[in-house]
Amino acid sequence: DPDLNDPPESGGGGGGGVEPDAAVVAAVASMGFSENAGKRAAIATNNAGAEEAVNWVMGHMDDPDLNDPPESGGGGGGGVEPDAAVVAAVASMGFSENAGKRAAIATNNAGAEEAVNWVMGHMDDPDLNDP
């Protein structure tokens, strides 16, 4: 059961769920949004395209789970574990350990620079420092 607030109007969402199109996700990320926001947008719009995905993200900026990994149709448990080196690098910049963990997960442990950029882009998130 997908947790997306606004399912696509075009219907046709099969039981297994849509896999996000990497090109759509990359286009959303290039606009400064998180990779997870891009994945959620791609899924919600059935990979309709970059413009539709960006519009979807813009309409869901206040969603508390916008930057959380999308629910997958049945993959393994747990999801991404934060890389300790990425978390430490973020913490060394003066951010909380929890912010580092969130950034590492949101960027799929892409690296310290990406994680710090993610934190900088989410400074106003009320849950940034929550465990």
Verbal overview:
There is one protein chain. The protein is mainly α. The chain has two domains: 1-79, Orthogonal Bundle (Helicase, Ruva Protein, domain 3); 84-121, Helicase, Ruva Protein, domain 3 (Orthogonal Bundle). Helices cover 44% and strands 0% of the residues. Helix 4 (84-92) crosses helix 5, helix 4 (84-92) packs across helix 6 and helix 5 (97-106) packs across helix 6. The longest helix is centred in the N-terminal third of the chain and has 10 residues, at 35-44. The chain is elongated and about 40 Å long. It starts with 21 loop residues before the first helix and ends in a 10-residue tail after the last helix.
The appropriate CATH architecture of the largest domain is: Orthogonal Bundle
Instruction: Enumerate the spans where pLDDT stays under 50 for 5 or more consecutive residues.
Output: 5-16
User: Helix/strand-derived class?
Assistant: mainly alpha
CATH first level of the largest domain: which class? Answer: Mainly Alpha
User: What order do the helices and strands follow?
Assistant: HHHHHH
By CATH, the topology of the largest domain is Helicase, Ruva Protein, domain 3
**CATH homology superfamily name of the largest domain:** Ubiquitin-associated (UBA) domain
What multimeric state do the chains show? single chain
Please give the radius of gyration in angstroms.
Answer: 15 Å
Helix content: 40-55%
Strand content: under 5%
Distance between the termini: 25 Å
List the total number of helices.
Answer: 6
